[in-house]
Specification:
36% of the residues lie in helices and 19% in strands. The chain is of the alpha/beta class. Strand 6 (132-134) and strand 7 (140-142) form a beta hairpin. Helix 1 packs across helix 9 (301-328), helix 7 (268-275) packs across helix 9 and helix 9 (301-328) packs across helix 11 (347-359).
């Protein structure tokens, strides 16, 4: 929270407060696009818009905290189709204090791909949902493990090459690798062309946004639009409450990820426990679905509180999307992923309604879902021509 602000007395955010968050968010995005080390980091994905002639087959792999998915995907003038798969399996993930070897982590993913019997020489799109620095050539270096995963010998190395090496041991040779995070994959699943205003949104256990930025000043040798992973969960919005402060203070990373802690399904139950007179209604392992259950259950103070927390989450997401519209020069097309967004009754409608109010436009913006968005986006990234911007 900004030092000159007093915690709000409730979870309700007025139109004026949301406008302030909108302005601050847009300013933070512009700063992130202009320089390293900004509050919203705006990590370059080194991926251009999708050209109209893009076509071909690709291997797509999506690895997260507990599961890995793989598919063979075809893209062409008729759209994008999952031709084989998706199939999934558990991640060989280790845990803090009991790490697993590098070969085990990437080997389980390679086994999954090999079972699809892909033709030789396909490109690989690798949706890698851990902190990693994407390189101009298409690979990415792991910064650190998160989500309880612990694998030795990977930090600082190029994860796409490590997966390709395990694939080669199984007789699967790829023509190239593109690594991207899940939010950028969701963005590309919307098929953004060179003139598109586009956003990829994840609103589930965590939250993040990616945009197709018209320019990225901190990458001066890139011409034209580029997909950018905002890492917007790190934004510090104004008008947080004393309960937000309590949840942040008790977290493993105090002072960090303040927007995510106010918005995402991992933290909303903690806010309820902090603010409710009956915190025992939320268990220690419950997610956002617990708030939905309380909101739609017996009317009363707890139902009202659950509704207020969910509504504020949707309003903050809307303010972020409208800020992205300000940066992009108009309302974008939005592809959204995440259980909070799609499985919480009324959440999407609240986001779109608040965004419409803030934009002051009757059409506002609409959010869509794309089946297997991360695999589709990863495949499209793999098919993009090498050599930078379009």
């Amino acid at each position: 929270m900004h030092p000159d602000r007093t915690p709000a007395p409730s979870f309700h955010l007025s139109r004026g407060a949301l406008e302030e968050v909108r302005t601050e968010f847009a300013t933070a995005v512009r700063e992130g696009l202009a320089r390293d080390g900004a509050e919203i980091a705006a990590f370059p994905a080194f991926l251009p818009p999708l050209p109209p002639h893009l076509a071909g087959w690709a291997i797509a792999v999506d690895v997260g905290g507990t599961h890995v998915r793989a598919a063979l995907v075809a893209h062409g003038p008729g759209g994008t189709r999952v031709e084989a798969g998706p199939i999934s399996g558990p991640v060989v993930r280790g845990r803090p204090g009991a790490p697993v070897p590098c070969a085990a982590f990437f080997g389980c993913q390679a086994d999954l791909v090999a079972s699809l019997a892909p033709p030789p020489g396909l490109p690989l799109g690798y949706c890698f949902s851990y902190p990693a620095t994407v390189l101009p050539g298409g690979d990415a270096r792991l910064v650190r493990w998160t989500k309880g995963v612990e694998v030795v010998g990977v930090e600082g190395r190029e994860v796409g090459a490590l997966l390709a090496g395990q694939l080669a041991l199984r007789g699967v040779r790829v023509s190239g690798v593109r690594v991207l995070n899940d939010t950028v994959a969701v963005l590309l699943a919307g098929d953004p062309g060179p003139d598109a205003r586009a956003v990829g949104l994840v609103a589930g256990t965590g939250t993040n946004m990616a945009i197709l930025a018209p320019a990225v000043p901190k990458v001066p040798d890139w011409n034209g639009p580029m997909a950018v992973n905002l890492e917007s969960g790190a934004f510090r919005p104004s008008h947080l409450t004393r309960w937000d402060e309590a949840v942040d203070a008790s977290s493993v990373d105090p002072g960090c990820q303040r927007f995510e802690k106010a918005v995402s399904g991992q933290y909303l139950p903690l806010l309820f426990r902090a603010a409710s007179a009956s915190p025992e209604r939320i268990g220690p392992g419950d997610g956002g679905e617990a708030l939905v259950r309380i909101r739609t259950g017996t009317p009363g103070e707890d139902a009202d509180l659950a509704a207020a927390i969910l509504d504020r989450s949707a309003d903050l997401v809307a303010a972020g999307l409208v800020a992205a519209a300000d940066v992009l020069g108009g309302p974008p097309s939005v592809v959204a992923e995440g259980s909070l967004f799609w499985r919480s009754p009324g959440y999407r409608e609240r986001v779109e309604g608040t965004a419409r109010t803030l934009l002051g436009l009757p059409e506002g913006l609409s959010c869509t879902a794309v089946p297997d968005a991360t695999l589709v986006g990863a495949a499209r990234a793999a098919l993009l021509p090498r050599g930078g911007s379009t």
